Amino acid sequence: MIGYVLFTDLKGYSKLSESEIGLFFRKIIPELSQRIDRYLQKAIVKNTWGDALVAIFDNSHDVVGLAFEYREFFRNYPFESIGMRKLLPRIACHFGEFELYDDPLKGGKNALGSNINTAARVEPVTRAGEIFVTSECKSAIENSPRKVENIKFSDLGIIPLAKNFGDWEISRLCRANEKEQIIDRVLKMDLSKALPEAPDMAVQERNLLQFLKNAPGAEELRSLLTPQIISGKTGAFIVALANTCKSFGLYNEAIAYIEEAEKTETLVDGIKVFPYRHKKDVRKLKANCLTRVGRYEDAADIVYGLWQSGVRDSDTLSMLAAQYKRRALYGDGTVVAKASINKNLLCRARDLYLEAFRINIEDYYPAINAAYLYKIIAGIELGRGNRLALYILDVWGERRGEDWWLDSTLAEAEMLLENYEDCITGFQEAIERHKPDAFQRKAVHEQISLYASLTNQADSTEIIEVLQRLQ
Q1: % of the chain beyond a pLDDT of 70
Q2: Which of 39, 42, 130, 355 is 20 to 30 A away from residue 314, measured at CA?
Q3: CB 111 within 8 A of CB 98
Q4: Strand-strand pairing, 88-97 and 130-134
Q5: Vertex 334, ends 332 and 335: CA angle to 5°?
Q6: Residue ranges in 264-330 assigned as alpha helix (H)
Q7: CB neighbour list of residue 119: distance below 8 Å, 6 or more residues apart
């Protein structure tokens, strides 16, 4: 079927107190239902959860009518009169093909398909109080057999959608008598000349990088890293070289190259800027390498800076958790005795890993780290660590074979459950299948060695055999 998919949510809903949430469902939702029911009656699919609404229509008049009715209801609602903070709607609409099916849990029709996901990814980037539509939706409305009157579109240009879903041509849908907003023109501006990207690698640089990646081992690579190797090279090459050094376990060399890349400058209308000082991925790479060489405070400072600048993704939270874990478990560069562990810091690290997992439940990295910490903390936490390890195996087990990190995580989960035979088999198959480099093996080896030391299993024959597989 081809139709219109509308998604909404409310900015400010997540900050409501418990009493405000009660007001929302007991007072506001019944009033909203009365206002939009005539549209929802015509919806082919409709569903709600919390503050979100999704509805699918085959008629342009119905989807436009619902979008405006929903927007005006919340724009004009007297929140102050009932003692609530204001909620502003974000409304997104896409047009495309999807599949209808009978949903036995819902007791009615439901829909699936990539176009449903597209609409869901437009909604988070929609300005509060506005209606954003894709170019497909705009075209379908404009070419509707029965013209939709009294509307207009403000083109916003190409906008990156949520969760790295890609870039999409987006427009703002509004009434014909509404004024164009200055922010619409700003979004539409091409700032590539004012804020150019740093130059990409040249072909010769790519060829050289590939040659270096093929080095047989860390010492062979180190012998190739002459001072001339970065002379006259782009910042992109120097950062890529730092990544290569990291993958071989040459962390100090990686840090040195990152710091060289940070000095790379470019001129924008005579203004000198340093693009690699601020790139998120470069900052994360540097923090990771600093941690590996024991410069925990420097690494923590970078991660904290990322967090304060708004980079609040699962990856950044996991990096922050890793800093707390290091501080809790290491003293003077060596693992402390179990009795000397700073349990408060370790619990904080665990909670940060759990929050990272909550933010992105597709990311198994914080999940396995939280499982490890549950087991190390021990006591009543042991059972939780086992349950989390079981969850990892249940959820990601079917994807075994995708890459080294997933397969090693599954093997580690088996180890935490003391299924050592399955763990050893899992590592053996992962090594044969993915041929992990020195960094990949070392990272997992260090994690398991730390766990064994802190759980008094360093002399366990099963753990020793696991570690031997990772040598």
Answers
A1: 95
A2: 130
A3: yes
A4: parallel
A5: 125
A6: 280-292, 296-308, 314-329
A7: 5, 6, 7, 54, 92, 93, 94, 134
Alpha helices in 360-397 (DSSP H): 364-377, 381-396
Set out the domains of the chain in order of their start, with CATH numbers: 2-188 (3.30.70.1230), 192-311 (1.25.40), 331-469 (1.25.40)
Nearest C-alpha neighbor of 38 from the set 55, 13, 26: 55
Pairwise CA distance, residues 143 & 409, whole Å: 51
Q: Is the pLDDT of residue 76 over 60?
A: yes
Distance of alpha carbon 366 from alpha carbon 319, whole angstroms: 9
Q: Tokens representing 199? A: 């130059």
pLDDT at 186: 52
Give the tens place of pLDDT for each residue, 377-436: 877 677 889 999 999 999 899 889 889 999 999 999 999 999 999 999 999 999 999 998
* Confidence band of 282 (pLDDT split at 50, 70, 90): very high
Looking at residue 380, what is its pLDDT?
63
First to last CA, the chain: 55
Beta bridge partners of 331: 334
Residue type for 207, please?
Answer: N
- At residue 181, the 3 state secondary structure works out as coil
Q: How many angstroms separate the Cα of 141 from the Cα of each of 64, 137, 149, 172, 178?
A: 9, 6, 10, 13, 18
Distance, in Å, from the CA atom of 242 to the CA atom of 286, rounded to the nearest integer, reads: 9
The closest of 376, 334, 330 to 353, measured between CA atoms, is: 376
pTM over 0.85: no
Chain centroid to CA 235: 25
Tokens (6 digits) for 177: 């008598």
Confidence of residue 5 (pLDDT cuts 50, 70, 90): very high
Q: What is 168-179 written as a DSSP string? A: EEEEEEEETTSP
Q: How far apart are CA 92 and CA 127, in angstroms?
A: 10
Pull the structure tokens for residue 399.
């994807």
What are the residue ranges of helices labelled H in 27-181? 29-40, 60-76, 114-122, 135-142
Separation CA 237–CA 160 (nearest Å) = 26
Give, as one character, the DSSP assignment of residue 43.
-
